[in-house]
Write a structure and sequence with these properties.
Layout (H helix, E strand, L loop, with lengths): L2 E8 L6 E7 L13 E2 L15 E4 L6 E4 L5 E5 L4 H8 L4 E2 L11 H7 L6 H4 L6 E8 L2 E5 L5 H6 L8 E8 L1 E2 L4 E9 L2 H10 L4 E6 L11 E9 L10 E2 L11 H13 L6 E6 H5 L5 E2 L10 E9 L3 H14 L6 E6 L17 E9 L2 H16 L3 E2 L9 H7 L3 H11 L8 H5 L7
Parallel strand pairs: 2-4, 3-4, 15-17
Antiparallel strand pairs: 1-2, 5-6, 6-10, 7-11, 8-9, 8-10, 12-14, 12-16, 13-14, 13-19, 18-20, 18-21, 19-20
Length: 436
Amino acid sequence: MIWAKDQTYSGWGRALSATGDIARPVETATITANAPAIGNRRSYGDAPLNNGGKAIDMTRLDRIDAFDRETGLLTVQAGITLGELTRIFAPQGWLPAVVPGTGFATVGGAIAMDVHGKNHHHAGSFCQHVTSITLIQGDTTHKITPKSAALWKATCGGLGQTGIISQATLQLTPTKGDMMLVTEQRATDWDHRVALLDGSDAQYTVGWIDATATGAALGRGIIEEGETCRGLRPTPRGTKKIPFNAPHWALSSPIVKAFNATYYRRVPKSGRTIVRTAQDFFFPLDKIDDWNKLYGKRGFHQFQCVVPLDQSHALRDMMQTIAESGLASPLAVLKRMGPGLDGDRAGYMSFPIEGYTLAVDFPNRPAARNLIARLESATLAAGGRLYLAKDALSTGTAIKSMYPDYPKWARVAAKADPDGALQTDMTRRLDLRTQK
């Protein structure tokens, strides 16, 4: 492989960065697992960073290797994005079974983080629809399946620490068309929101939440329910771009409150049903290039946790803390998660558990970092966990206590990568590769 020297790069949050040598191979045969793999770096923190070391950029390995139109089994290279798969296969009657909030996530990254989507309450997480994974370990290649037991569970959601994911076979899900029939309705307060989430039987459900609302309006927002459908495609709108870092006052508390109030009122009190493209429904922010620049040159942090169903009150308390802080941005989401397929999680370090997940963005400021530490403590006390695809601030002690299967993962990762060649800034910060 050819290495580009001293490249500086960051995760999507831009609060942390790294400098090191990066290779961008075009053939898997040239890859040796002597450095961690990275994709489009849509993880927000330091999971895709290896400061002072090497990294292998997999994004040029984006080929479709095989597709069975009858069964929906699709074999692809790890660098292809979920947005591209949605674009190609939705018109043919198939969709990736699970997609996150951005179509720029690669298949390899989706496996390494075991991403979840707006249908976790029905479909579980991404890796529960993967039938095989090709791993490069050292200079050898292995194909693993769910029958590979411990290695499979350590790879799914395993932060890329068991080998470089070079290829995967996915079970796509059949769809009625490449359009979405979307019903939007207001949630007037916290209890109303939880009731709407609990009562939804839609294929896809997600809720934007006004993280600035307090008092009787605490928890207000918009619930979206979506079903695939056929229909006329709306007039396409061009992609917008954020050309420069926004000034620090652009997300000040008064501006965010005003924006959130307007956004809440965009949906009539009686609700509405509209038709959107699949891309607009699944990946709404992808229409704005470099939207992370809205937080300015210092970047931002996202706090995302999940708490068990019987701890919704703890999440409500967190929302009150956030609202009173005046630090939240307009980007805040609350969803319900299911138990996973067959009541099981895909991997030892997979994030989803049955419960409610909250994700909120904060500009990278000292007060926000202190707030996130308080929210982390509340999550731990509620028996919840943080999502490592978003984290940049937690401690190893906290993460290890949140993930009870961590020791199993650490043992398998140590065996798969005995020299620690695949470590990243995140695994070092959290001391995840040390077995204790």
